[in-house]
């Protein structure tokens, strides 16, 4: 998918704004949620997840974010 100059500029501005938001709150929990949210929005994805590993390489926590678009539900 090729982007127009305007679309690319909008995405770059959104990415810059997201990076500014990321540094506002130094809480690790909020930072990881914001990273997942920014990734979801920038990728145009419905869902984003970010896994954090512990010192042994096991999964410690998962931070996830649903995009604000209407989700399809199976009947």
C-alpha termini separation: 32 Å
Major beta sheet summary: 2 strands, antiparallel
| Run of helices and strands | HHEE
Bin the helical content: 40-55%
Put simply, the count of helices is 2
Low-pLDDT windows of residues: 70-75
The fraction of residues in strands falls at 15-25%
Which strand order spans the largest sheet, edge to edge or round the barrel?
1-2
Coarse morphology: globular
Average residue pLDDT = 82
Characterize this entry briefly:
45% of the residues lie in helices and 20% in strands. By secondary structure, it is an alpha+beta fold. The longest helix has 18 residues, at 5-22.
Produce the secondary structure layout.
Blueprint: H1 5-22, H2 28-43, E1 47-53, E2 59-66
Antiparallel strand pairs: 1-2
Helix pairs in contact: 1-2
Structure overview:
With 75 residues, this protein is of the alpha+beta class. The protein is built from two helices and two strands; from the N terminus they run ααββ. Strand 1 and strand 2 form a beta hairpin. The longest helix has 18 residues, at 5-22.
Q: What attributes does this structure have?
A:
45% helix; 75 residues; alpha+beta
């Amino acid at each position: 998918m090729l982007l127009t100059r305007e679309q690319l500029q909008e995405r770059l501005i959104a990415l810059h704004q997201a990076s500014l938001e990321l540094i506002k709150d130094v809480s690790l929990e909020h930072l990881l949620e914001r990273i997942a949210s920014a990734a979801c929005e920038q990728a145009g994805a419905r869902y984003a997840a970010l896994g954090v590993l512990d010192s042994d390489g096991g999964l410690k926590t998962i931070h996830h974010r649903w995009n604000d678009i209407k989700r399809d539900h199976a009947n």
